[in-house]
Each structure stands twice: as C-alpha cells, then as structure tokens.
Amino acid sequence: MATKTASPKTRKPKVNNFVLALEQFLEKHNLMADSIPEQLNEHAPKLDILLPDWMARRCVKVALAREEREKYCAKISNAMDIFTHHLDLGPKNDYENEIVTSGSCQSQFRVKLAEGGVSPKIINTYAKDPKLIQESNKIQKKQTKKRMANPDRIPIHFSSARVLKRIQNMDISKIPSKEDLADVIVMLSMRLAEVRSLQIIHYKLDHLNAPVWYKEGYSWYCTGYLKSRGEKKKNPEPRLFLSMEKSPECARELLTWIQNAIKAKKLRDPVFTENEIHNAWLFNEFLKQEPYRTIPKKLKDYGSKHASRIHGGKKPTPQHLKLLLKIAIRQESDRLDAGNNYAIGNTKSEESDSEPETSDSSKPQIQASSSSQTIEMDSMLAEIDTMLAEIQN
To answer: Spans of biased composition, class Low complexity (predicted)?
Structure first.
C-alpha cells in the first residue's frame, strides 16, 4: 500500500481530543455509553460546555455510536456485523497518520471482541487485516527511527542537575508555583492527567501472603497511573516506584504538596479548569516561555530519561536503562529505549551545566539523603538482573 505524508494545513480540532475528553467525563461521573437518559441528562450541561461547536459534538456522537456498536458486535458475535464494523474502522485514505490511527482503532475493536467472549477464529477471520497491521507497524517503526536519530534536545532549564537542585530547594510551606508543578511532573515522569490521580504508597510485605506484583527489594509503589486497559484499568496493580528524587518519602511529600494546592484552588490544575472543563491551554502557554521552551507532554519524557540515568549508576548497560525507563513511566510498553536515546547524546546540555552549588546556609527543607533512602541501589540492580534473566529465559 503506497503511503503519503500529509502536508501542513490549518490546524483543526483533533477527533482524539474530543474522544479523550468524553472518556474522562464518563469515567469521572461514573457513566457509560449505554447509561439511561435520565443519568445522561443530569450531566448534559457540563458535557455541553466541553463541546464548543458542532464538529466537537459530531465527534463525540460518533465516538458514542462506535462504543455502542462494539458492545453490540461483542454481544451478538455475528460474523457479518463484525466484518462490517471492522471495515468502517479502516483507513479512509492512504496518508500515514490515517493508516496508523485506523490500525489502532481496529486493534481496540479486536480487544473489545475478545473481552466480550467472541471466538479468536472469528476475530482473526473477520476483524483482522494483516496487510494494514504490517503497513502500520512499518510506518511506526520508521517514525520511531526518525525520532531516535533526531532527538529533541532537553532544554537547559530541565537538565537533570537543575531540576534536582530546584527539587531539593522546594519549600512546602509556601504555595507552589507553575514552575514547581512542572518540576514535580518531571520528577515523577507524570502525564498531566496523573497530577491529581497519582499516588505513592508504602507497602508492608506479608511474607506469608505476598501479592504477585510485589518485587523483592522494593517497598514503595505507584498507583493511579494511566494508559491501562480493561480489567487492569478498573483494578490496577501497584507498580514499582522510580523517580528522579530517590527518597520515596520526599517524592510523596512533594506530590501531596502539589495536589493539596490544586484541591485548595491555590494552583491551577494543568488539565482541567475550575469548572472541570478540559483545557490545558494556560499550562501550554506557560511552558512556551523562556527559559522553559517546551511542551507539556515532553516533561514526562525528560523525567523518565533522567530517572533511568540516576538509578542506572555510572556505567549502565542499555538493557538496564531500558528496563529502568519502563519502570519510570509505569508502562508495560517496550517501544522506548533509553539506552539508544542517550547513546545519541540527547542530554549533552547537562554536562555543560556549570551552575554553582548552594552553600550550607541555604540547605533545602527537603533533602534527598542517601543514608535515608529506602531503596538501596545494590538491591535494585540485583532485582533488575533477575528480571532480565527471566526475560531472556
């Protein structure tokens, strides 16, 4: 299948943004696409505010219809209905982005069918397009290779040394600023929507009844992360804690400081307005300024790369960095490779950072003391070695 690269055009609202807003709205108010009219009408005014024009309303209407169609196909298990809806999700043109998006939509459709109990044979026969999957994978591989070959340089302001210095000098007795918010997002490799939902917890192990998710050598975990599907989204398992700030107590205190300020409306949430309208425009505009010169979604990437290097030691192997990166971003994805990124010299700016050290008279109120760290580096590396051995086996 020949592909085209779309030429730049006037920016229009992205369908995915409205669909994401709808999903978050339904989840927040405990609603579903098939909720009764009385339940939906109760929240209609709030939803109407989220949808500024007819195009937004149409996108949401299509999304609701798609969800309902998927549930119907999964329930009925009729091969012809499944095949028809599968075709509807196919690419409308041969642009690269359309091919990748359609491949993703069809993949989600197959997941819904499997969750609904449809037989694998029917799914593979009537809801799977190997040619499209191959073409989508090829495009994504090319795009990933291009990004790896030309990585965005991390701004000096968000270099590892400077972020750590600001973190160690944060005064939690004061009201946090937008810069504090950005630094905490980097510190914990958070997505914007996780600023209110992420939790850092201490787990006391019962050796007689250890859960399957517990890893030897770890006692701190994260919950409330995004990007999970199905049952894992409803009942998420805690995932290993890993951040630029090695002290879990310190990291939790800073996160709670930010979250409490947002609850008290002393700090603006980076995703939602006070009226719970999905709008990240103000935070976007803030990060465009000097000395930040970045966009919100990149903060997570900066933090995950910094954290993997900090916990990797002086001479980390690419395998260690890759595994640490996965832990830092709390994903079960294998797409990112910190080793490759750093081999290119993505953080060269950090080495030239000659900002003077703070004097003893200006010691931070929150210190990342190595003597008080709960997670010891030796046990961490030993655990990583064990995990790598399991993967290789």
So the answer is: 359-373
| Residue 24, domain member (yes or no) | no
Nearest-angstrom CA–CA distance, 144 and 167: 32
Residues with Cβ within 8 Å of 19's Cβ and at least 6 positions away in sequence, in order, are 59, 60, 63
Residue 262 included in any domain: yes
Query: Of 331, 313, 314, 336, whose CA–CA distance to 384 is shortest?
Result: 313
From 87, 366, 391, select the one nearest 247 (Cα to Cα): 366
Residue 292's nearest CA partner among 281, 280, 283 is 283
**What are the tokens at 53?**
């024009």
Cβ contacts of residue 239 below 8 Å, gap of 6+? Answer: 213, 221, 222, 223, 225, 327, 330
CA-wise closest residue to 312 among 299, 323, 303: 323
Query: Which of 220, 253, 202 is closest to 368 using CA atoms?
Result: 253
Using only C-alpha atoms, the chain has a radius of gyration, in whole angstroms, of 23
CA distances from 119 to 111, 175, 333 (A): 12, 55, 26
Range name among 246-250, 265-269, 284-288, 345-349 with the lowest pLDDT average:
345-349
Strand pairing report for 239-240 and 199-202: unpaired
Q: Where are the beta strands (DSSP E) in the chain?
A: 199-202, 220-223, 239-240
What is the C-alpha separation between 77 and 91, in angstroms, rounded?
Answer: 23
In a domain, 164, yes or no: yes
pLDDT tens, residue by residue, 141-154? 888 787 766 666 88
**173 domain residue, yes or no:** yes
- Residues 192-220: tens digit of each pLDDT: 989 998 999 999 888 888 888 888 888 99
Domain encompassing residue 164: 156-301+356-392
Q: How many CB atoms are closer than 10 A to CB 358?
A: 12
Half-sphere exposure of 325 (CA within 13 A, CB side): 23
Residue 359: pLDDT over 90:
no
Please confirm whether the linkage preceding 291 is cis (ω < 30° from 0): yes
Instruction: Pick the more confident residue, 54 or 309.
Output: 309
Helix, strand, or coil (residue 221): strand
Q: Distance between CA 242 and CA 304 in Å, rounded?
A: 9
Question: How many domains is the chain partitioned into structurally?
Answer: 1
Name the 3-class secondary structure at 375: coil
